[in-house]
Amino acid sequence: AEVAELRARLRAVRHTVLVLSGKGGVGKSTFSSLLAHGLAADETKQVALLDIDICGPSIPKMMGLEGEQVHQSGSGWSPVYVEENLGVMSVGFLLSSPDDAVIWRGPKKNGLIKQFLRDVDWGEVDYLIVDTPPGTSDEHLSIVQYLSATHIDGAVIVTTPQEVSLQDVRKEINFCRKVKLPIIGVVENMSGFVCPKCKNESQIFPPTTGGAEKMCQNMNVSLLGKVPLDPEIGKSCDRGQSFLAEAPESPATLSYRNIIQRIQEYCEQHHLQEEKIM
Questions:
Q1: 193, 176, 181, 257: which is closest to 224 by C-alpha?
Q2: Which of 69-73, 135-139, 157-161, 197-201 shows the highest mean pLDDT?
Q3: pLDDT tens for each residue of 94-128
Q4: How far apart are CA 208 and CA 163, in angstroms?
Q5: What is the pLDDT of residues 204-254, one digit of tens each?
Q6: Do 160 and 205 contact (CB within 8 A), yes or no?
Q7: Which of 70, 75, 126, 155 is least enclosed, having the fewest CB within 10 Å?
Q8: Percentage above 70 pLDDT, the chain
Q9: Is residue 134 classed as helix, strand or coil in its secondary structure?
Q10: Residue 7, SS3?
């Protein structure tokens, strides 16, 4: 009955993409928010962003939705909308203050993830982006288990160039393989810094072991692209604005657009393959 409920609720979701990272602080929520903004730039597409980082929900702040509340309707919880075609759901909307700590054990987290999938009335959605916490534990197992009732296009794994981050990303890739979650590809974030004045590039996080590119070759996964470090990205997130719209000519924006296009192409191809099997 539970599986049937989830399947009925998510039947109208065309593509589902999970955003993962082995380590915290690599820019996963930033990537999730900009992926959602980039997909929603096409006004014909309906995009949903689900934040299941229950202990560290940063999506409301990044999407300019701090202080918003979730409304209940006859058909379930209504997402909070940034644009007409971009809806967001996060535990951050259920807290009385952005500074409240969520001190929950695993079963309560799993219950909330199930509730988000079962009770949120997303409507017809082209892309459901799921922002996950770092690691390979409760929340990840729950979301993969619940979404297996419908379908997942795959996971995008975010890393930074240094070995400390890549070490955890290798674990994340192995997690995906163990739970049979397709890997769309890896994004190397904070990949070099281009000085806005002199345009020279510096390696803030030197790729001592060859960076994401070498790791992807060794582990046989796709490198979707490299996003350079740009201080304006952090400022845009703090203001709750879309960096892609604020700095359309930035090298980081161009890199994001290429990555988003590759994700879209993968999802369409995956959808066609699923239709053939059916």
A1: 257
A2: 157-161
A3: 988 888 888 888 889 999 999 999 899 988 999 99
A4: 7
A5: 888 889 999 999 999 999 999 999 999 899 999 999 999 999 999 998 999
A6: yes
A7: 75
A8: 98
A9: coil
A10: helix
**Which H helix or E strand runs over 76?**
strand 76-78
Q: Can you give the residue range of the structural domain that contains 140?
A: 1-277
**What are the tokens at 186?**
């890896």
Contact 244, 34 (CB under 8 A): yes
Q: What CATH number does residue 33 fall under? A: 3.40.50.300
Q: What gap in Å lies between CA 258 and CA 239, rounded to an integer?
A: 24
Phi/psi of residue 265, nearest 5 degrees? -60, -40
For the chain, give the longest Cα–Cα distance: 61
Total of domains in the chain: 1
SS3 state at 93: helix
Beta bridge partners of 49: 88, 129
Record the tokens describing residue 66, joined without a space.
């701090």
Rounded distance between C-alpha atoms, residue 223 and residue 226, angstroms: 8
